[in-house]
Write a structure and sequence with these properties.
By secondary structure, the protein is of the alpha/beta class. Helix content is 26%, strand content 25%.
């Protein structure tokens, strides 16, 4: 199983932290960055091949990968030259050459308990599977999901009516079998849209919902976080600082070894 991580953007909402450092290299667990923790979690779950989509600070990401190789992982980068003028749909489209077999797609700012990728890998087989989180309330920034009974995805987007919302996408999903080509073909259609540069790749997932290709798997209480703002960053750092002793299922990299 291959993993593609989307790390091309600067993360302007995290300025001044991302003035020079790409968001994925911000440290959150002592000296360990978001990207290092993601790679350690993937390796722990048995993943062996990772492609990282880079853009802003690409040289820094590649230097990090060279200086801190991850045992058991083959990691390479692919560059998105449009990172500064586009949203993540374009980064996804630029990764299409990597989408030749079953793969996992992961946002570069998403962290989670170490067994979450395994939850996805062992989920009931479907062409496309999204990991979702359920909570009591949702805000305008949440990538909300609506289900069509059971695990089937009916819609995904930030503007869904709250009465129809059953959870939120955490930015981690898997494509298997015909889901791989369906997603790649839908990306080719979406990239021709006049507003493609401002679109999220989850709008492509939304376009696949009528075909009943997309299912979901819930976190069921497992920890996760998205780092979009300085407040998010502070909360994630506090989370790791609060882990005083080895606990099964807790993310910090030292506890994988």
């Amino acid at each position: 199983m291959k993993v593609i991580i989307l790390c091309a953007g600067q993360g302007r909402r995290l300025l001044p932290f991302t003035e020079e450092e790409p968001k994925c290299l911000l440290t959150v667990d002592e000296d360990r960055s978001v990207l290092e923790l993601q790679l350690r979690a993937l390796a722990w779950c048995g993943i062996t091949e990772v492609t990282i989509m880079v853009g802003f600070g690409a040289d820094r990401v590649e230097r990090f990968l060279a200086e801190r190789p991850m045992p058991g992982l083959t990691v390479r980068t692919r560059y998105n030259p449009f990172f500064d003028t586009s949203n993540n749909l374009v980064t996804c489209w630029a990764a299409a050459a990597e989408m030749t077999e079953d793969f996992i797609l992961l946002n570069g700012d998403t962290l989670f308990d170490r067994d979450v990728p395994r939850l996805l890998l062992t989920s009931p087989e479907a062409p496309v599977t999204l990991v979702i989180n359920r909570k009591a309330e949702y805000d305008d920034d949440d990538m909300k999901v609506s289900l069509n009974g059971g695990r089937k995805l009916k819609a995904v987007g930030k503007t869904l009516p709250l009465a129809t919302v059953h959870g939120e996408s955490i930015g981690l999903m898997m494509f298997r079998g015909r889901g791989v080509s369906a997603f790649r073909d839908a990306l080719d259609v979406a990239i021709r849209e006049p507003k493609a540069l401002q679109m999220w790749y989850l709008s492509v997932i939304n376009s696949l919902c009528p075909s009943s290709l997309v299912e979901t798997v819930a976190l069921d209480g497992r920890w996760w976080a998205e780092i979009d703002t300085c407040e998010d960053l502070a909360k994630v750092r506090a989370h790791f600082a609060s882990q005083q002793s080895p606990v099964v299922g807790v993310f910090p990299a030292a506890r994988y070894e």
